[in-house]
Amino acid sequence: MIVLERSIAVGSGIVxxxxxxxxxxxxxxxxxxxxxxLVQMPYEVPTQPExxxxxxxxxAPEQLSEQEKARLDALxxxxxxxxxxxxxxxxxxxxxxxxxxxxxxxxxxxDRVRYNAVETMAMIKDPASVPALLERAVDTKEVPRVRxxxxxxxxxxxxLQVVPAIAEMxxxxxxxxxxxxxxxxxxxxxKEILPIIIGVIPDPEQYVAITARDSFxxxxxxxxxxxxxxxxxxxxxxxxxxxxxxxxxxxxKNSQQAPNSEQxxxxxxxxxxx
Length: 274
Known about the structure:
By secondary structure, the protein is mainly alpha-helical.
């Protein structure tokens, strides 16, 4: 009797489970799955902000008043310190009127003041500053970085004035000064600069000699024969430089025009440029 009751219970459970699963299957099959679609929403261009016309910078005065002269004089010590960039901008605003005060700054103690004075002259680009720059460039008591920057700026402002200074600087004891001077020589479109450059090719320092060789090529497109400059000795370069002197003699015979350095080309790779 007990066994019969258990069998009836198990059978009833199976029937109930079957009804449940069949109901779930029917519900799943009868349910409609929605399908979405992409819709292009209208795009509205955002409103552009209205900008006011920028105000033009106040032009520099034609003549300085006594108050403006005192102002520029007071700006000179500020070329070194937290306000140095602001002071440089003020000098640039006054343009050529600032040059006498910047020349004064070239003789002040503190190489930062002198360097920034040179940099400010580079932005003003007044040829009247070139003689003072050259004087600073050839001064052996000046720190090398100020000297190098001075000849660099002077050459960019007026390359026709720098030949005597370069001729002196390529003989300097400091190899950095010699290298800078002979590098700037490539921007001087005068034939008088060519023998000065040739004289630096046998330089004891290899990188100075290579710089001289490249500057000569920029001006004349003459690079000599192929030599291994990377392992060259001063004795090697003393022998090789004769090729450049021979070229110079031929150049003088032909009475050619001065070289043009307005467009500086890149030296060819086969010249073993360093």
